[in-house]
Each structure stands twice: as C-alpha cells, then as structure tokens.
Backbone:
C-alpha cells in the first residue's frame, strides 16, 4: 500500500492532479470550522475527473466553531456529493468527547492523554443522542439499501434485521461506485476518531483489485 499526502494549496494543483491520476481511493479532509473551501472544490473535481472513490473526514472537531453537520450540508450544496455520515460527534469544541458509530450503534469515548494504541472505550449511545443517531442511521440505511436487493427488502420489512456486515458490504459497493461518500469526524491532533477513520479506509475504499488499471499515453508514439 502506498500513501500520498497531497497538499490542498493552489500552488500544488499540478502535483495533486498527478497524484490523483494513480490513486485507488482518497480521504478528503475538511476543517470543521473552515468547512468547504474553494481549493477543496478544485481538488474534489479533480478526484471526480479520475473517478477516485472518496471518504470525507471532518477534522478539528475540538476547535471553537466546529460544526460537523454544517460540513455535511456544504458537501451536498457545494460539491453535489451524496455525503453520508457513518458516525456523528459526541459534543463539539472543548466538549468534543468522541463519536457515535451509526453502523454498530455504539459510542466511542476517547482519552487524548492515553499512550495506548487503542485509546477509547466503547459504551452505549448516550440517551441525549439516541434519537439523533437513529435518524442519521435511518438515512444511511435508506441510501445504501439501493445497492443490495436483500438489504432493500429488509429495509422495507424490518430494518432491525439488517446486520452490520450487510451495511458495510453495501456501503463499500456504493463507495467504490462513487455513488456515496461516507463521512466521519474527529480531532487528529488529539487522536480522537483516527482509528475509526483508518477502519473506514479499510472497509470502504477499494483495493487495486476493485478498480480498473491506470491507462496512459506513450509520449514517444
């Protein structure tokens, strides 16, 4: 696996273009405060041009003015992306504690001072977020059910019968087909939400076997 960190600054537009030309998948990072910036739109269009499946990651949830759902809305409005949160934040700004996994319906509370590889504890979804989590999970299930006939039938019959594996499988298929963009959030500097993001990369972005080979032109002929 090769990882490429592409700067978003306009001075590196050509370098970003070259990188996207050979990537199998991308993590588009947005600031929870700055949201979708003009150069973000440029890079997003470049990724669309080369048909690169994407995950959107909203960073800096611990900063003043952080708003995850505002970023989700801007991805819809400014980028025309079918952005689907796969988690929602627990708190924001200095009260950002963790995330709610909408697939497992579990809460992850992070300890930023921990030196352990796994620096979170898993708990039940807090009561004050239960309704909101169920609402966003419903939107997620409705969107991905279109990509799996069995999932669609369960969605209409009894959504509670849908398993985590079925959701992950359908979401992976939809992501690789560039029909949806899974969204997660965190605070990278404080190591909150990073593990969930990495798990999402493995779950939803394609391997080289899932995408077509890169084609090019021989400049000599």
Residues:
């Amino acid at each position: 696996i090769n990882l490429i960190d592409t700067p978003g600054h306009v001075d590196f537009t050509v370098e970003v273009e070259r990188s996207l030309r050979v990537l199998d998948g991308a993590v588009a990072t947005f600031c929870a405060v700055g949201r979708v910036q003009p150069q973000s739109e440029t890079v997003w269009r470049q990724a669309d041009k080369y048909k690169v499946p994407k995950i959107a990651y909203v960073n800096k949830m611990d900063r003043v003015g952080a708003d995850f759902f505002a970023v989700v809305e801007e991805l819809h409005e400014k980028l025309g992306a079918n952005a689907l949160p796969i988690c929602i934040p627990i708190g924001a700004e200095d009260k950002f504690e963790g995330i709610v996994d909408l697939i497992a319906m579990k809460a992850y509370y992070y300890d930023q001072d921990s030196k352990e590889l796994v620096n979170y504890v898993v708990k039940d979804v807090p009561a004050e977020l239960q309704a909101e989590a169920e609402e966003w999970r419903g939107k997620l299930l409705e969107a991905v059910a279109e990509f799996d006939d069995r999932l669609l039938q369960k969605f209409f019959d009894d959504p509670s019968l849908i398993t985590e594996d079925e959701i992950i499988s359908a979401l992976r298929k939809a992501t690789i087909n560039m029909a949806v963009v899974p969204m997660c959030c965190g605070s990278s500097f404080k190591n909150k939400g990073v593990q969930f993001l990495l798990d999402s990369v493995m779950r939803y972005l394609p391997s080289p076997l899932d995408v077509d080979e890169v084609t090019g032109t021989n400049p000599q002929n």
